[in-house]
Every structure is written in C-alpha cells, then in structure tokens.
Amino acid sequence: MSSIHEVSLLPDARHAVTVFKKNILVRYYSQQNAHYEIVIVNSGYGFINGSEQSHFLKPGDFFLKDPTQRYCLTALRNLTIIVIDIIPAGPFLFIRNIDSLMQALCSLYSVDRQPKNIKTDLDAAIILAQDIINYDVNTDDIAAQAQKEIALLKLIIFLRQVVTQTHDCPENTLLDYIYRHCEYKMDWDALCDSFKLSRRTFHRYTERNIGMTPEKIYMMFKLIKVQEMLRTSDFLVGDIARACGFSSTAQLSNAYRKIFSISPSQERVALTASSPLAMVKM
C-alpha cells in the first residue's frame, strides 16, 4: 500500500486527485485556485482561520475548501493534516459533474463552518485516502483510473456516513466548549465537574497533548477571537476587549502584545494593508 508523503508544493494538473500530508510547525496558507480540498486533521491541535470565522482544530476534524476560498492553519502543537486535492478540470473519466458534487459537500463542510469530527474512524479515513494514491498511475490505464475515482467516492461517502455517528472524548468536548465560550470567566472546578473530569486530569491532558495549561489555552482562545473580530468587524478595540471578556483595553493590549508582538491597533493597521489571512500569527 502506498503511504501518504509530505509535499511542499501544490499538486499539478496531471492527476484529477492528489493526496498529500503536511506537517505544520507554525502556519500554513492555502491558495485561492481552481482546486477543491478535503482536509483531515491527522494529529495535533491548532486553529483554522477562514474568510469569516476561526475554529479550534483537533485530531479527526475535517473540512472542505472550494476554489473561491482561502484559509490559514495555525499550529498549537504537532499539527499534521491530510489533504485530498481535487481538480475538477482534471482528467476525470467516470465521475460526472464533480463540480456539483463538491459544491454540495462544501455547503455542508465549508472552511467557514465548525469542523466535523471523525476521530473514532480517523484510521479508516486515512486508509481510504491511501487507496486513492494506490492508483496514482498514468491516466492511459483506464482500469486504474476507474479504481482511483471509486476510491475518492468511497472516501466521500464514508465521511458523510460517520460524521453523524462520532462522539469525541470529554477532554476535546470541553476544549470545544471553552473555545465557544471564551469571552466568559471560567470556574474550572465546576466546568470540569460538568464534563465528568477532574481538574487534574484535564490539566494533564492539555499539557501532554497541546503543551499548555488550560489557563494558557483559554487565553489563546480569547486572543484568537480578538484577532478574528479585528479582521472581520469595524468595532473599536475597546468594544472588542469587552466583547471578548477583557476588563480593559490596556489588559487586552498587554496580553495581545505578549503573544503577537504587536498591539491590536497595530494589527488592524496591518490588516488594512494586507490580506486578512496573512495576519494570523503565533
């Protein structure tokens, strides 16, 4: 069986479907091109910043990108993704209306939606992705091309089936909850109790898997939310500070500068002159 290799360049148009792995140390920027992408988080933790929203990423999450979209991935720790790159104008021999199929999927699993999670079936999804490149041969081999397109359809059907059946571990469910409610103060003991976890267990989990304490992750979540609002709204920095749970603009500015090395006001000036996705930092 072929393994999924890491690549540093975008696939070319010689194949309709290409599968590759990417280990992200700090950031990864997708390109706005004629490709669709199915992106599966193989390991690690981080964030996805689309055109409208930011979302927390964990193992087993997946999302789709259409040709009009771009995104930036920011790693917290050991973020590795599997990308199934689909070129609708490529040499498909048997799948008809690939554009319509992928557009329908993107409407469900877009980069701007909350990523879906298939963690308990992640290994099976990766095997199906490997099956696609098992038939990465010359397109003159019609039988192999048919097998490759069948493998792609199997992966798509599999993702649709398992996404409604997966239940994540309580630690990751709690991390999702913290990200969605990071503008509020956290009562850590009560919060862990409500997810049937001890505070010590949750602390060990985040230290081992993300390399941060829950308190530091919580602050990072708040600052990512601030960065998202700076990028997508015209609110004053003081209003953003209050909306994200900071007691003052000064408190926000100090915390923001420690992580991103510039102030929120400087961030907004830079955003005005640059692509929104280019300003996500770690």
Give the helix level as a range of percent: 40-55%
Could you give the order of the helices and strands? EEEEEEHEHHHHHHHHH
Uncertain segments are 275-282
Radius of gyration over alpha carbons? 20 Å
Give the number of domains: 2
Classified in CATH, the superfamily of the largest domain is Jelly Rolls
Overall pLDDT: 84
SS element count, helices: 10
Q: What share of residues are in beta strands?
A: 15-25%
> What is the CATH topology classification name of the largest domain?
Jelly Rolls
CATH class of the largest domain: Mainly Beta
How is the biggest beta sheet arranged? Answer: 7 strands, antiparallel
Secondary structure category: alpha+beta
The termini sit apart by 37 Å
CATH architecture of the largest domain: Sandwich
Counting DSSP E segments of at least 2 residues, the number of strands comes to 7
Tell me the overall shape.
Answer: globular
